[in-house]
């Protein structure tokens, strides 16, 4: 079996395959990046240590005798989907949601307006946002340089969206660099953050406080930051009948509301930095000439059909930085069925639907299957559903063993593609720990692909 994507979705699928004994399997977990763990490395906020430590569990799965990691192999370019399918008996797509949703408002593309996906990738040290100096993509260089410049020149930021990513972004942007020094952030990220002077962050929710999608533990963290006041207008927290119904049925919404109400009632401490929540507020225009200077905001309400509609103007917010944190979106990979409308691979219980019928050897799991929702653990049950379908199809004879063991390795060797394996990952891991310790930290992320590849070499010496 091959699994495309070595993030939590793919690794949980490998775990489900390796834990059963009905069918003897060899599992190749393939990733275009030199390192495994996907969003656990490149999405979970660096100051969320316990969530990041899920990596240890994922690593144990990749170490199992029936599982092999193939890093730095891009499916769709190094190998086509057709070639991969011919090299194994079945494929599970687990390549996640690679881009951000759009706001579709004027000014969205102005310098100073960035997607949370880009900012998160930047502060987690993702090689796509930290290009090698000899890498040709001008766009990649622009993104990296622009974020560095924006971080060091902004005072007022607007974060659009009230999900967990919005909270991560607000927290990382408002924390001081000293608060972040115990993380594994790359040196160049910490250097940028040390020049940061952001004093005010405005978080916009287009619906009321009952409709937030963040979790209460993550929300509470904002109220515990030193020298930061959280500001909420109590009028924003009044509940209309539909919000009351939501709060009665949804325990997380009810708990979030209690935290927000506590903050709205709390006297301000005179802190030097502020996070302000604005509910029933959505941006209608991002203002600026060659850079964002402000965000025009509209008051909103939910109409009788349940849609969010405009209900008049709110004060315009001054901003040098706008972070659009309105969710991720899946991208098509050449050769894989894709539903443009949902941004997902069409499937039923994990069985991929190709040209209107089940494809005999293709499966899907994770965000590219169900959309960008849920916490990391959600991927475990999702993977179990997909692997259960796959194993049932093996029993029914729909998936057949073609005796293709070793075929993938031969194909890669013919192409001159050298996949990075788990020993290579351990060398990268050791290099990151060594670099961190040399700066008095636990570890430091290597953000550039060339650094990762150099560290992966057998004869690697510390940089
Ligand atoms: P999310 O939870 O879907 O939140 C997206 C937010 O954007 C929602 O508040 C949504 O509001 C808003 N939004 C969407 N379109 C908008 C528009 N056009 N204008 C204004 N607002 C808009 O997504 P996410 O925060 O990117 O997180 C993705 C997933 O990762 C979630 O399942 C999240 O829980 C998970 N995650 C978990 C953690 C953690 O456990 N610590 C950390 C990070 C991420 P509506 O509800 O009105 O659509």
List the helices and strands and how they pair.
Layout: E1 2-4, H1 8-19, E2 27-30, H2 38-42, H3 49-52, H4 54-62, E3 67-70, H5 81-87, E4 91-93, E5 99-100, E6 113-115, H6 116-123, H7 138-153, E7 156-160, H8 164-174, H9 177-180, H10 187-194, E8 200-204, H11 216-222, E9 228-232, H12 241-249, H13 251-265, E10 273-278, E11 281-288, E12 292-302, E13 308-313, E14 317-318, E15 321-324, E16 328-329, E17 347-348, E18 351-354, E19 357-364, H14 367-370, H15 378-396, H16 407-415, H17 422-438, H18 449-456
Parallel strand pairs: 1-2, 1-4, 2-3, 4-19, 6-15, 7-8, 7-15, 8-10, 9-10
Antiparallel strand pairs: 5-16, 11-12, 12-13, 12-14, 17-18, 18-19
Helix pairs in contact: 1-15, 7-10, 8-11, 12-13, 17-18
The structure holds NADP nicotinamide-adenine-dinucleotide phosphate.
Can you describe this structure?
By secondary structure, the protein is of the alpha/beta class. It has two domains: 2-98 and 330-420, Rossmann fold, CATH 3.40.50.720; 102-327, FAD/NAD(P)-binding domain, CATH 3.50.50.60. It has 18 helices and 19 strands. It has helices at 8-19, 38-42, 49-52, 54-62, 81-87, 116-123, 138-153, 164-174, 177-180, 187-194, 216-222, 241-249, 251-265, 367-370, 378-396, 407-415, 422-438, 449-456, and strands at residues 2-4, 27-30, 67-70, 91-93, 99-100, 113-115, 156-160, 200-204, 228-232, 273-278, 281-288, 292-302, 308-313, 317-318, 321-324, 328-329, 347-348, 351-354, 357-364. The strands form four sheets. A seven-stranded mixed sheet has the order 3-2-1-4-19-18-17, covered by helices on one side. β1, α1 (8-19) and β2 (27-30) form a beta-alpha-beta unit. α7 runs parallel beside α10 (187-194) and α8 (164-174) packs parallel to α11. The longest helix has 19 residues, at 378-396. The model has no long low-confidence stretch (mean pLDDT 95). Bound molecules: NADP nicotinamide-adenine-dinucleotide phosphate. The site of NADP nicotinamide-adenine-dinucleotide phosphate has 27 residues, from α8.
């Amino acid at each position: 079996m091959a699994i495309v994507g070595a993030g939590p979705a793919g690794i949980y699928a490998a775990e489900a395959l390796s834990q059963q004994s009905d069918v003897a399997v060899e599992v190749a977990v393939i990733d275009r990046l030199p390192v495994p763990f996907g969003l656990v490395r490149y999405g979970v906020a660096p100051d969320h240590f316990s969530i990041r430590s899920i990596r240890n569990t994922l690593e144990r799965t990749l170490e199992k005798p029936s599982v092999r990691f193939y890093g730095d192999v891009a499916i769709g370019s190094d190998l086509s989907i057709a070639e991969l399918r011919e090299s194994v008996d079945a494929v599970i797509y687990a390549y996640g949601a690679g881009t951000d949703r759009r706001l579709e408002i004027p000014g969205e593309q102005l310098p100073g307006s960035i997607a949370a996906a880009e900012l998160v990738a930047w502060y987690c040290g993702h090689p796509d946002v930290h290009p090698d100096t000899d890498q040709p993509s001008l766009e990649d260089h622009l993104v990296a340089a622009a974020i560095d410049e924006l971080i060091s020149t902004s005072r007022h930021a607007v974060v659009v969206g009230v999900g967990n990513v919005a909270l991560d972004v607000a927290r990382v942007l408002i924390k001081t660099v000293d608060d972040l020094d115990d993380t594994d952030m790359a040196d160049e990220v910490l250097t940028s953050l040390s020049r940061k002077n952001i004093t005010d962050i405005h978080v916009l929710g287009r619906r009321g406080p009952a409709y937030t999608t963040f979790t209460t533990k993550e929300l509470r963290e904002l109220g515990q930051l030193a020298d930061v006041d959280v500001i909420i207008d109590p009028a924003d927290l009044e509940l209309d009948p539909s919000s009351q119904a939501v709060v009665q049925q949804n325990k997380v919404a009810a708990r979030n509301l209690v935290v927000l109400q506590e903050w709205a009632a709390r006297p301000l401490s005179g802190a030097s930095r502020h996070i302000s929540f604005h509910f029933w507020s959505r941006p209608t225009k991002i203002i600026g000439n060659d850079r964002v200077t402000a965000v025009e905001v509209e008051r909103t309400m939910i109409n009788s059909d349940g849609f969010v509609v405009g209900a008049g103007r709110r004060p315009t917010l001054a901003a040098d930085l706008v972070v659009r944190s309105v969710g991720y979106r899946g991208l098509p990979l050449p050769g894989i069925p894709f539903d443009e409308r949902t941004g997902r691979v069409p499937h039923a219980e994990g069985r991929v639907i190709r040209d209107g019928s089940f494809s005999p050897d293709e499966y899907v799991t994770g965000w590219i299957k169900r959309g960008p929702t849920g916490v990391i653990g959600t991927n475990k049950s999702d993977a179990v559903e997909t692997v259960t379908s796959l194993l049932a199809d093996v029993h029914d004879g729909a998936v057949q063993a073609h005796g293709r063991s070793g075929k993938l390795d031969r194909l890669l060797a013919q192409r001159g593609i050298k996949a990075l394996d788990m020993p290579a990952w351990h060398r990268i891991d050791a290099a990151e720990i060594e670099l961190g310790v040399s700066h008095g930290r636990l570890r430091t992320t290597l953000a550039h692909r060339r650094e990762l590849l150099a560290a992966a070499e057998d004869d690697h010496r510390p940089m």
